[in-house]
Amino acid sequence: MPANGQGEINVDESESYSDTLASSEDEEAACLSRTIERSFTTTTLPADKLATIESLPSKRDHEAFFRECIDIMLREAIFEGTSRRTKVLDFKQPETLLKLLDFDLKAQPSSHSDLIKSLKDVIKYSVKTGHPYFVNQLFSSVDPYGFVGQMLTDALNPSAYTYEVAPVVILMEETVLREMRQIVGWPNGEGDGIFCPGGSMANGYAISCARHYYFPEVKTKGLHGLPKLVLFTSEDAHYSIKKLASFLGLGTENVHLVNTNSQGKMDPDHLEQLINTSLENGERPFMVSSTAGTTVIGAFDPIEKLADICKKNNMWLHVDAAWGGGALISKKHRNLLKGIERADSVTWNPHKLLTAPQQCSTLLVKHKNVLSEAHSANAAYLFQKDKFYDTQYDTGDKHIQCGRKADVLKFWFMWKAKGTSGLEQHIDKVFENAQYFYENIKQRPEFQIVIPEPECTNICFWYVPESLRMNSTEEFLDKLQNDGEYKEKLHRVAPKIKEKMMTEGTMMVTYQTYKEKPNFFRMVFQSSGLDKNDMLHLIQEFERLGQGL
């Protein structure tokens, strides 16, 4: 056999599943072998490549390949890719990367050795998002137990729509979602919930549920004949609220943006003003989408006050806790979401603050039947009512999707491994790291804080190079407010530092503007694998990269 482990096909010698059949099935297997051999005679593919066209693994053709691939992934992507001694990324410009990797798809199959090279190249030039110094997005880390759960999910390849094809993951989903609802504060975990392909879609489901709750006729008759429906969210809310309102036919102009205060929280007084104006204009306000952990600032809207307003005006209250929902598990920090039990629906992404592998997003709903009533289509070929088991576990009809990856398994495996107490310790650790980082940079003249006393693990700051430093924070803020040229110079600092950190590969931290503020950095901490030494290293790295600007 060639070194690439493929060799010529010989069905009689193959160690695939058919060879394990009992002797009573030998004749059937032999007949199948002859059929396969006859089908192969019509192909023009080289004989040593034929093993790659079957979508069934065989021990002879694939075991060594699997083991080598998994060994490379563990060594280079997992352990080296998360080591502090290695780079976060090996950045290349697009035109260079197109030449370095063989992206082309060819008519003929590739050899295993070529595939191994591609595997190594993909790892080499990908961003190591599990690296301790990848603090660029609202996800990070490679949780060891989540990783195993992810691999198991792909090995089993279930589609979670009926109990008959996915019995384990269906029950797993119901268990995890009920526990999450209980943590939210709904008695005995009552209500309903689904796993979604991302927090944006979870927010879209919430809008759909709210609309159906007040206007169930929309399912059959559409928007025609309905009053002008409007919803409200803060100016700092995730863009998915507008995007999904458009997708659902409500229109972005009917998403009214509520002012936020200096800490990024929704202003309840302004919300009431907007609702009153909407009613005077003959519109039908039906929903408020609040945020528990805004994307940039990490602000938590005042849920209790918003719940009072929604109750008064007969409106659905949604809480987008995609980012901040993990704080619910911590006794120290769950008060950030005080009043969340009064919400009608909650988006909560375990792949964010809890560091489950991507993607792992949920929508939790207080009202038990609204998901299925709003979205079911009763496809007769899937959801037969006369099955021999309890069909309440055929949960797929309340989803918009049919085929759906079982995102629950990796999170369940993590939770099973660590227990709720372990998840709580994780949350407490990342908040502790964020506070330590904040307290340190606050004392250094080269750092200026954008949002004082941050609530979540988002730490927003300006790095101020020596050429732009002032004698005090007061002088800095005055200069920023009144000197346009100074503001423009500071605006250009973050992109220059980001370019240096990307090309050197030492860390990844994002930057952005906010309202009228010039570019600043946003550190987001969610990996409990970091410690105080890492916080100091990140600070020192900013100081190094900012020299000479």
TrEMBL record:
One of its GO terms (biological process) is carboxylic acid metabolic process. Residues 1-23 are annotated as: Disordered. Gene3D superfamilies: 3.90.1150.170, Type I PLP-dependent aspartate aminotransferase-like (Major domain). Keywords: Decarboxylase, Lyase, Pyridoxal phosphate. The modification N6-(pyridoxal phosphate)lysine is found at K352. Homodimer. This is Glutamate decarboxylase.
